Amino acid sequence: MLLYIFIFVYLVGLSTIYTYFEEKKDEIKLLTIPTFIMFLVFDGFRNSSVGGDLNFYVNVFKENSLQIPELSNIFKSRFEIGYILLNNSVRYFSDNYTILLFSFAIITLSIWFYVFWNYSENIFISLIIYFSSLGMLLYSFSNIRQGLSISVGLLGFHFFTKEKYIRGLLCTLIAPLFHITGIICILFIVLRKIHLSLKVFVVVLLGLILTFPLLKNFSEFFVNIFPQYISYLESSWFLDSYKLAPIVLSIVYLILFVIGEIILKNSELTESEEYIRMLFFCYLIFTITTMQTSLLSRFAHYFSPFAALYVPMFLHKVTDKRIKWIIFYFIVIVYAVFLLVIVYYKVEWYNVVPYRSVIIDWLIGKEL
Questions:
Q1: What mean pLDDT do residues 139-160 have?
Q2: CB neighbours of 125 closer than 8 A, spacing ≥ 6?
């Protein structure tokens, strides 16, 4: 647990320096490079015990048992074609699972850091959110297929922002090949030119109210088509005694959305900022829907990166220094609580504690 706290404090320190010395932000931003290396070692060299489902993926990799399913069973297969091909490609070169995890870490972290570097007003606040929040980095330690899918979808966001629609559409088509829920990334292109106006807000709110009671029916319909995902309705931290989790998460992001909209209402936003604003609003809506059915949390995760872009975006627009620091400390406290829940209070959610590194195992001669 101490390693997680150390990384969090490190990121808070960098984000504080970045916020205080705004005139030197270009130089301070270069510290992203050693931070990326730290994340890569932390992610890519973790032991197979770090992540709830990771042992399962590692065993499948070692046994080299994945085969592309027949066309008639393609929607019933436990693993998507993209993941099978990537898993088998790595397995062709080595049966050491660290090669697999390190390969995945390079892909996912490179995309997240690239997007943060280009679109975040404070990359270190974005990294705090990425590191500490539910459904982001630590979530991908267990759910590596969906972690890959989310990253590919996020790259699609970048291409859509740059109006490179063919590349963006290609990413949108690739995302479901790693996890079927990646099909939701089609909304990235649908929402590209839609601004969050009062009219849009009212229509979405009314739609949410009308469809909210029907969301459980959607879950049943989805698992009827994809029965291999029925476990998503039964093994989620959104269920039973954890029912408070989606409520608290919805309240927190609603508060951040209200604060952001108050700040942004008199600000001139670029096209990319309007896009981020709209996608964060979608994340809020999807998070609210998870109070009805946990399955939708799987779709909500594709919009979680935009929380890490929206928060530093509105914080950057605050001109009053005192108010800016108050909001900054509020953000730090919120995500510190999130992290403590994951690594201390509810460790069974992600099973990332205790953290173990294969580097230490190698040094003491322990067999992997």
A1: 96
A2: 15, 18, 19, 308, 311, 312, 315, 328, 331
